[in-house]
Amino acid sequence: MKGITSCLWFDHQAEEAARFYTSVFKNSRLGSISRYGDAGAHASGRPQGSVMTVEFELAGQKFLGLNGGPEFKFSEAVSFIVNCENQQEIDEFWTKLSEGGSEGPCGWLKDKFGLSWQVAPTALGEMLTDRDPARTERVMAAMLTMQKLDLAALRRAYDGIEGGATGANPAGVGSSTTRH
Question: How far, CA to CA in Å, does 26 sit from each of 20, 67, 85, 107, 138?
Answer without folding.
Answer: 12, 24, 14, 20, 33
